[in-house]
Amino acid sequence: MAAVPVSGKISQSIQKRTAGGKGKNAYVRFFLEGDGNCRVTVRGGEKSQTVSAGDPQTVKLTFSDTAISELSFTVQGTGKAYIDDVKVYTWITEGNMYHMDGRESSCAQAIRDMNHKVQ
After folding, report:
1. Which pLDDT score is estimated for 93?
2. Cα separation of 102 and 36, whole Å?
3. Euclidean distance between CA atoms 69 and 106, whole angstroms
4. What's the pTM value of the predicted model, to 2 decimals?
5. pLDDT at 91 over 80
């Protein structure tokens, strides 16, 4: 977990690490918590979005029509922001098995039934 002070910045070049390279959208997902009254600006490529830090939360951002070659987090306001478990991806595959939060989706029971028949 990175503890980023006010006016602090962390960044990572991910140019050759993005699977699939250029999708229509880029997605950034991370854990965020903050002290005081702070905001975190996330810059992906040429676009940026700002979120408030406070109670622990999982932040999910979509950067439309962009490829992210560098990702940065900048903190403004008062206090510190705690950032962890950062994920950057360009494709979302909907298999209808499980949602991102672990809940079962519409096809989970059908797969169990099919597996039971082939045993």
Report:
1. 72
2. 31
3. 35
4. 0.72
5. no
Query: Are the beta carbons of 4 and 39 closer than 8 angstroms?
Result: no
CA-CA distance, 36 to 78, in Å (whole number)?
Answer: 5
Give percent above pLDDT 90 in the chain: 34
Residue 36 gets the label, from left (phi > 0), alpha (psi -120 to 50) or beta, of left
Q: Is the pLDDT of residue 62 over 50?
A: yes
Closest CA to 81 of 115, 48, 32, 13: 32
Pick from 26, 82, 89, 38: nearest CA to 57: 82
d(CA 71, CA 35): 23
**What does the block give as tokens for 30?**
């991370």
CB neighbour burial string for 77-113, b if at least 16 within 10 angstroms, e if fewer: beebbbbeebebbbeeeeeeeeeeeeeeeeeeeeeee
Distance CA 97, CA 72 (A): 32
